[in-house]
Amino acid sequence: xxxxxxxxxxxxxxxxxxxxxxxxxxxxxxxxxxxxxxxxxxxxxxxxxxxxxxxxxxxxxxxxxxxxxxxxxxxxxxxxxxxxxxxxxxxxxxxxxxxxxxxxxxxxxxxxxxxxxxxxxxxxxxxxxxxxxxxxxxxxxxxxxxxxxxxxxxxxxxxxxxxxxxxxxxxxxxxxxxxxxxxxxxxxxxxxxxxxxxxxxxxxxxxxxxxxxxxxxxxxxxxxxxxxxxxxxxxxxxxxxxxxxxxxxxxxxxxxxxxxxxxxxxxxxxxxxxxxxxxxxxxxxxxxxxxxxxxxxxxxxxxxxxxxxxxxxxxxxxxxxxxxxxxxxxxxxxxxxxxxxxxxxxxxxxxxxx
Length: 354
Hints:
28% of the residues lie in helices and 27% in strands. It has 9 helices and 17 strands.
């Protein structure tokens, strides 16, 4: 990954944007992707579209969601302590002691997630999961009046964690789920425009919004694009670390390439094309089964209008939905290459009719 690519990925990961508040990252994504696309635009929902070869056929859509999990200001008590709700699914175990940032038009307000000290927690309480209503955010305010000068009900909140490189091309950040996917969509547009250049389909790269609260951006963007063929890009559980059950989740390793899914959510002919392309281009890849609809944009794309030939390509991710998610840069690069070179092989939508 070169300096420009890494800078773009880092900027996506360090720009806050929980579901419903993706605007800044949408601007970030559109500005970079516009360098390679024929046309870039947004919609009323906040989805971002990059178009190549608009008059081509068939129509191919690539989706990676640009939102992240987070929190929202829900109540401010008389002493200025802030109570919150979650945006997306977050394990309460990891909340106490986090540094957070509250975001609004006035700027960024730092704070911490408080909880009573271990010394005063009763022995019978220590093994229990803390309730969200028993935790609060402390911004150092004297009282409610002062807190309200800085924050408002409904303000989004994110963990105050940045981008970090560790060993073996692995990187750590919050929101790799799924800013890594949004990055890949931009990269596919770049590869097609600069490295492949000649391909038959019309290609719509979409940075979708609000995936973490119900695949909402994929539903609206797939309806408007009306693709024949769709690729969803998301993260999946790496099972190469302690406490992960391979019997339930399969074998998925960081650094061993894109994860290709098989099952009800996946068009088998599109899956076969991905595998053939991976072998042809010598791109390492891994397999996972999905016996039913997946909890990803692939589900929304497949079921849009009269149905879409859909595939799900995933990036192995350790510690999903924590502030310290971990992915491998080579995996991210290889997902982008595999999708781009698979699109080059697509000739007709009829080839994917079952």
